[in-house]
Design brief:
596 residues, Serine Threonine Protein Phosphatase 5, Tetratricopeptide repeat, two-stranded antiparallel ribbon, 29 helices, 74% helix, elongated, disordered N terminus
Length: 596
C-alpha cells in the first residue's frame, strides 16, 4: 500500500505540474476570503469561466479538492470545448480520489477516478488508480468480462458516466466491433451524439463473427437514424444540399442493415421514411423514386413498390439500374406470402411477356417457376425450373432446392437429370457430364461478369463516376458478396474525394478476400489519418503526451490496421506512465506486422 501511495504521489505531481495552469495571471491585488474556515484566496470572486478555473486551481493548491472540483465544473460547463478546463477538472478529481484512496474510502475513490476519466479519457494515472481501487474492493480489474459486466449494469441502471468509462476500458482491452458498438450506444444515450457516431462508424469497420450479424445490422441502422435526424435538421435550417446528401447516406446505412439482416424492420421503416423525404424534396429524381421503390419492396408493400417502379420507368425507361431492380421486385413478389393474388397474377403476365422476348433467360425462367409454384401450378413450375437449370443451375440459390421441393432430381454435379418416361434399348449419344455442364456455365457467367467490369472500369477512367456508382450499387445490393464490385465502388468514392465511404467499400472487398482491396484500404487509411498524425507530431514536439495520445487514438479509430500508429501510441502511453496499456498497443503493432 505504501509503495502505491508513493507511486500516486509521483505521478500526480508530474501530472499536475503540466495540467493545472492558470489561463491568465491573477488580477486581484487584494486578498479575498473563500472556502470558509479562515482560508484566504488571492483570486477574485469568479464571474467568468477563466476566473472559475483559476479559483479551482487555487483551491486545489490548498487541498480543498471538493471546492476545486465544483469551480472547475463551472468553468467547463461554460466552455465545454476548452481542453485546459477539461484537463484541470480531470486532474482535480484524480487528486481527490487519491485522498479518499489513502483514507481507504475505496468506493468513493472509484467514483472520483471514474469522474476524472469521464471528463478526460486520456488521463492515464486516473485509469491506473481506478484499477487499483477496484482491486481493493475484490474486483478483478484486469478481466475484460468483468469490465463488460460493470458497463452493462451501469448502463441498464441509467448511470451513463460509469457505463461510458467502463466501456472505454473494455474497448482498450478487446477492441472489437461489439465493444465499439456498445460504447457508441451508451455515448449516444448520454447525449454525446458526435462521439457516439464516431464509435459506431469504427464498429462497422471491424470484423464481426457471423453470430453477431444482427448486432452489426443494428449498428448500421443506428448510423442511419443519426444521419436521418441531422438531414431533417439541415432541411429545417435551409441547408437543402447538405440535408439531401445526409438522406442518401442514411439510406445507404439502412440498406446495409437490411442486407445483413432482412428482418430488421426498424431499418426498413427508416429507409422508407428517408426515401419518401428524398422524393418530396426532389420528385423528378429517378434515383429517389428507385430508392423508395426498393424500400417499399423490402417492407413487403408491393403495391406501392410497383407504383414507384412505374414512375421510374416514366423518368428513365433506359436506365440500366431499372432492369435489375425490376427483376429483384419480381423475385421478391413471387416468393412472398404478403402479395395479393391480383398483384401476383399481374406480375406473372409481365414475366411471361419478358420470356416471350427472351425465352432462354434462366433468371426469368426461375422467377416464372417460383410464381407458378406460389400459385399452386407445380407441374408448370417444375418445367420452368428444369429449363432454367439446363441453362444455368446457379442462376439463383433456390433453383436446385425448388426442383427438389417439387419432386425433381438434381445430379450431384449440379445439372438436371430427369428420369426417362420409358426404358429404351437404344443408346443415347454420349453428351457432356453434369459436372462439365456446370463448369462451362460457370465459365460463361464469369466471362460475362468480367465484360461488365471492363465496361465499368472504362467509365471510371472516363470520369463517369456517378453513373458507375449507380450501377455498382445495384450490383452489390443484389449480390452483397461480389468483392470486385465493392472494390470498384470504393475506387469511385476515392476519386470523388469521399475517403470515408471509399474505406467502407474497400473494407467490404477486403473481408471477401479481394486480392487488391487490402492494399487499397491500407493506402487510403494512411491518407485519412495524416491530419491526426501531424497533430500528434506537434504535441510530441511540445511534450504534450496527453494530446499526442488523444490524436493517435483518433487515428487508430480510423485505421486500426496500421502498425506504425499503434507503436507511436505505445510510446506516448509509456511517457504518461501507463506501461500496461503501452504494452498492449505494442503487442497489437507486432501482431499486425507478423500477419503481413
Amino acid at each position: 500500500m505504501d509503495q502505491f501511495r508513493i507511486t500516486i504521489s509521483c505521478l500526480v505531481a508530474a501530472f499536475l505540474a503540466e495540467s493545472l495552469t492558470f489561463v491568465s495571471p491573477a488580477e486581484a491585488a487584494r486578498r479575498r476570503s473563500g472556502g470558509g474556515g479562515g482560508v484566504y484566496l488571492q483570486t477574485p470572486n469568479p464571474q467568468t469561466p477563466d476566473e472559475h478555473n483559476n479559483r479551482g486551481v487555487e483551491l486545489g493548491n490548498k487541498g480543498l479538492w471538493q471546492d476545486a472540483i465544483r469551480e472547475h465544473e463551472l468553468a467547463l460547463g461554460a466552455e465545454p470545448d476548452n481542453q485546459t478546463f477539461r484537463t484541470n477538472l480531470s486532474a482535480a478529481q484524480l487528486r481527490f480520489g487519491d485522498m479518499l484512496f489513502n483514507k481507504k474510502d475505496f468506493y468513493n475513490a472509484i467514483k472520483q477516478y471514474r469522474g476524472s476519466l469521464y471528463v478526460d479519457p486520456n488521463n492515464g494515472p486516473a485509469d491506473q488508480h481506478l484499477d487499483e481501487a477496484l482491486r481493493q474492493t475484490k474486483i478483478n480489474a484486469d478481466d475484460p468480462q468483468t469490465r463488460e459486466r460493470l458497463a452493462e449494469t451501469a448502463g441498464n441502471s441509467g448511470d451513463y458516466e460509469t457505463a461510458i468509462v467502463e466501456w472505454r476500458k473494455y474497448v482498450r482491452m478487446i477492441d472489437n466491433g461489439y465493444a465499439h458498438y456498445s460504447l457508441g450506444q451508451v455515448l449516444s444515450k448520454a447525449g454525446k451524439v458526435v462521439e457516439g457516431y464516431k464509435e459506431l462508424r469504427t464498429a462497422v469497420g471491424r470484423p464481426w463473427p457471423a453470430e453477431q450479424k444482427n448486432i452489426l445490422s443494428d449498428c448500421h441502422r443506428i448510423l442511419g437514424d443519426v444521419l436521418k435526424e441531422h438531414a431533417f435538421r439541415g432541411k429545417e435550417s435551409g441547408e437543402g444540399t447538405v440535408g439531401m446528401k445526409r438522406l442518401v447516406n442514411a439510406g445507404i446505412e439502412y440498406r446495409r442493415a437490411v442486407t445483413i439482416n432482412p428482418g430488421n424492420t426498424s431499418a426498413i421503416s427508416g429507409l422508407i421514411e428517408v426515401s419518401r423525404e428524398a422524393v418530396a424534396i426532389k420528385p423528378s429524381s429517378f434515383d429517389n423514386h428507385l430508392m423508395l421503390a426498393g424500400a417499399y419492396q423490402l417492407g413487403g408493400d408491393f403495391d406501392h413498390a410497383k407504383q414507384e417502379y412505374e414512375t421510374c420507368y416514366r423518368l428513365g425507361p433506359n436506365n440500366p439500374a431499372l432492369a435489375a431492380a425490376r427483376k429483384s421486385f419480381h423475385t421478391a413478389l413471387v416468393s412472398s406470402p404478403l402479395a395479393s393474388q391480383a398483384l401476383l397474377a399481374s406480375t406473372m403476365q409481365s414475366i411471361q411477356a419478358q420470356l416471350m422476348r427472351n425465352p432462354n433467360d434462366p433468371e426469368m425462367l426461375y422467377i416464372y417457376g417460383r410464381g407458378k409454384e406460389t400459385q399452386g401450378d407445380t407441374r408448370t413450375a417444375l418445367a420452368a425450373y428444369n429449363k432454367a437449370a439446363s441453362l444455368n443451375i446457379h442462376v439463383h440459390p433456390d433453383l436446385a432446392k425448388g426442383i427438389k421441393r417439387l419432386g425433381g432430381f438434381v445430379a450431384d454435379g449440379g445439372g438436371v437429370a430427369p428420369v426417362p418416361e420409358k426404358e429404351t434399348t437404344a443408346k443415347a449419344p454420349k453428351g457432356p457430364t453434369p459436372e462439365e455442364i456446370k463448369k462451362q456455365q460457370a465459365k460463361e457467367e464469369e466471362q460475362k461478369k468480367q465484360q461488365v467490369y471492363v465496361g465499368l472500369e472504362e467509365k471510371i477512367r472516363a470520369g463517369k463516376l456517378d453513373e458507375v456508382q449507380k450501377e455498382l450499387t445495384a450490383i452489390v445490393d443484389s449480390n452483397p458478396g461480389d468483392a470486385k464490385a465493392w472494390r470498384l465502388l470504393g475506387n469511385t468514392y476515392e476519386k470523388k474525394g469521399d475517403l470515408d465511404q471509399a474505406a467502407v467499400s474497400y473494407r467490404q472487398a477486403a473481408m471477401m478476400k479481394d486480392p487488391e482491396a487490402e492494399s487499397m484500404l491500407r493506402q487510403i487509411n494512411t491518407s485519412r489519418v495524416q491530419p491526426m498524425l501531424k497533430d500528434a507530431d506537434k504535441a510530441v514536439a511540445e511534450k504534450n503526451w496527453v494530446q499526442a495520445a488523444a490524436s493517435l487514438r483518433e487515428a487508430i479509430s480510423i485505421a486500426p490496421n496500421l502498425s506504425l500508429v499503434h507503436k507511436r501510441l505505445a510510446e506516448a502511453l509509456r511517457q504518461l506512465g501507463d506501461t500496461k496499456e503501452a504494452d498492449r498497443e505494442l503487442k497489437k503493432a507486432q501482431d499486425l506486422e507478423s500477419s503481413k
